[in-house]
Amino acid sequence: MAELRLMKGNEAIAEAAIRCGCDGYFGYPITPQSEVLETLMARKPWEETGMVVLQAESEIAAINMVYGGAGCGKKVMTSSSSPGISLKQEGITYIAGAELPCLIVNVVRGGPGLGTIQPAQSDYFQAVKGGGHGDYKLIVLAPASVQEMYDYVDLGFELAFKYRNPVMILSDGIIGQMMEKVQIGPYKPRMTDEEIVAKYGSWATTGKTPNRQRNIITSLDLDPNRQEQFNLKLQCKYKEIEEKEVRFEKIACDDAEYLLVAYGSSSRICQKVVDLAREKEIKVGLLRPITLFPYPTKAIQAMLGHLKGILAVEMSTGQMVEDVRLAVEGKVAVEHYGRMGGAIPTPQDVLKALEEKIIKG
Amino acid sequence: MDVKDIIKEENLVYSKTKLLTDNIMHYCPGCTHGVVHKVLAEVIDELGLQEKTIGVAPVGCSVLAYNYIDIDWHEAAHGRAPALATAINRLYPDKYVFTYQGDGDLASIGTAEIIHACNRGENILVIFINNGIYGMTGGQMAPTTLIDMPTSTTPYGRKTEFNGHPLKITDIIAQLPGTCYVTRQSGHAPAAVRKLKKAITKAFENTGKKKGTSFIEVVSTCNSGWKLSPVKANEWMVEHMFPFYPLGDLKDE
């Protein structure tokens, strides 16, 4: 029987982690995501499923605990908010460079610097374009509801292990803090140590047995040709992800003359904008990217034939809009509308921006 | 009689350490890493722990430790080995997890990680190579560099008013209730190597008994960084390093 529960986005992350068979969570308190660690500590999953939960001494330590746990084949995760995610970038690039699976949740707040504890979407570039040093990509999932916060934990781990690549859930302070009803799934058992050896024994540090070579987890190769080959291998993987894993949602797009492109919280606001515009007989549709990498470039391109203009709506100065422009290649007008610093646009604000920047423009 | 007739079990007095690989070591002749690697490999082998041991390598000269000891290894970011080891230990409580770190790694960039791992009493063992210098990057000042000791970033010698004091991190670690065994050893003479082996053996046994963190500092030479011959480096270490970093157990509970 599916169970419905009213919960915060951050609580949904914690509950989903326990139920999807996560082996370890390592975190550090930061607003507005501290409920993830608090919920886990209150739930005591180590008594229920054996899941390890640890409050680390810093975000840097937390992501490096994830690095260690991922290296030994376990299903491990961390969560934080923008300033903390900046600190984690060192560990994230090592995890990407060592090709390890893990899940990182960013409940974004406004920046730069200490910024604000209010919601924002200003970490898009950091999440989607790399973040740390070197040529690497995360798979980035953008939930727009508390239900999706819950669902994308399991999905995130599935993708992480499928591609041996770190996955980020890019959320924000609205979705982390708001309460909605969530359909809770059944428990998935954690993998046993024997199952981990059987499945990941070819690469994970599970202890060297006589039947195999020693496993070495590293992101180091001092030979330039081998390091180049490794980088090319990563690019092949990212290309495969772009071909197979694009996810998006289209609302009222079939007859749309104008398109809103928005993810996460902004897409919830834009759903209302579509209704308001349709009442005024303006044919507006909404494309909501669910994966930010890989980006739904082709989905946007496929609609260009009947579009007169596109408005990218984000709670930032305009980051995702660059990917919309790359998809559109100058074929129709693309503008950006956003609020920042913790300010949240109203549907009326967005509709006004659409009319002024796109329809009249 | 040829060599084959001589190599018989009853004649065997010495052989290559079983868990050391055939890879050619990149360490400079005279470097203490070679000695510590050998002793560590011997202990793991003699205790029969190859299948249960996971090593966490640092950034520094021993970043490539995974090339030499035939166990599973995870290479950490600079200073973060204790964080990795924390997770591995908690996720596999019956494994023997150790970190192998230099003084720049453990006592400078990784100070927070080592202090907190030891303070939590993670059931791991730590091997801390203290040669008073950054070896791999070319002999820069480390937190453990002695007063007046010249390095590439203190070419006129380390001055307290400018560079602060050498950090006796092992003394701090010994204060932490999470540690069960804290000792300072060396590897410059046969007797010292035997003591070092005893210390590493005890540390692995402590892990088996889940006693908390065992911490072994090895006061070491970096003859290339110190610009001395291997023999002179050993003499310099005895004369200058040992008075400031005295050998012996700081804690054994």
Count of beta strands of chain A: 15
- CATH topology assignment of chain B: Rossmann fold
For CATH, the homologous superfamily of the largest domain in chain A is named as Thiamin diphosphate (ThDP)-binding fold, Pyr/PP domains
Rg of chain A (CA only): 21 Å
Name the chain pair whose interface involves the most residues: A-B, 39 and 32 residues
CATH architecture assignment of chain B:
3-Layer(aba) Sandwich
Question: Which key features would you list for this structure?
Answer:
heterodimer, A: 361 residues, alpha/beta, Rossmann fold, 2 domains, seven-stranded mixed β-sheet, five-stranded mixed β-sheet, 15 strands, 43% helix, 20% strand, globular, B: 253 residues, two-stranded antiparallel ribbon, 9 strands, 38% helix, 18% strand
Q: How does the SSE layout of this entry go?
A:
The complex is a heterodimer of chains A (361) and B (253).
Chain A: E1 3-8, H1 9-19, E2 24-27, H2 35-43, H3 45-48, E3 52-55, H4 59-71, E4 76-80, H5 82-97, E5 102-108, H6 124-128, E6 139-141, H7 146-163, E7 166-172, H8 173-177, E8 179-184, H9 193-200, E9 216-217, H10 224-244, E10 248-251, E11 258-261, H11 264-279, E12 284-289, E13 291-293, H12 297-303, E14 309-313, H13 321-328, E15 333-337, H14 347-359
Parallel strand pairs in A: 2-3, 2-4, 4-5, 5-7, 6-7, 11-12, 11-14, 14-15
Antiparallel strand pairs in A: 1-8, 6-13, 10-12
Helix pairs in contact in A: 1-2, 1-7, 4-5, 11-14, 12-13
Chain B: H1 3-6, H2 32-46, E1 53-57, E2 72-75, H3 81-91, E3 96-102, H4 103-109, H5 111-120, E4 125-130, E5 133-134, E6 140-141, H6 160-163, H7 169-174, E7 179-186, H8 190-208, E8 213-219, H9 223-226, H10 230-244, E9 248-252
Parallel strand pairs in B: 1-2, 1-3, 3-4, 4-8, 7-8
Antiparallel strand pairs in B: 5-6, 7-9
Helix pairs in contact in B: 2-8, 4-5
